[in-house]
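The following block was generated as part of the benchmark described in Methods. Ligand: zinc ion.
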Amino acid sequence: MARSDHICPNCKEEMEEGLLLDRGHGNRPVPQEWLEGKPEPSFFIGLKTKNKRKRRVIAYRCPSCGLLQEYAR
Ligand SMILES: [Zn+2]
């Protein structure tokens, strides 16, 4: 189990580090990413992602109450 320095504000329990899964090309699981700006629909690929800053989203989960805290780093 991955340990972290994050403490649940409700239970004061140590939160576990993880990530949120998304579905990429071919329905493969990929880590969720933060993307700057507003969504710009693109006819061919769904959403424009080119030339935008991206960050991997890290999620901390409380083992007691299930609270999620997400960070884009
Ligand atoms: Zn909690």
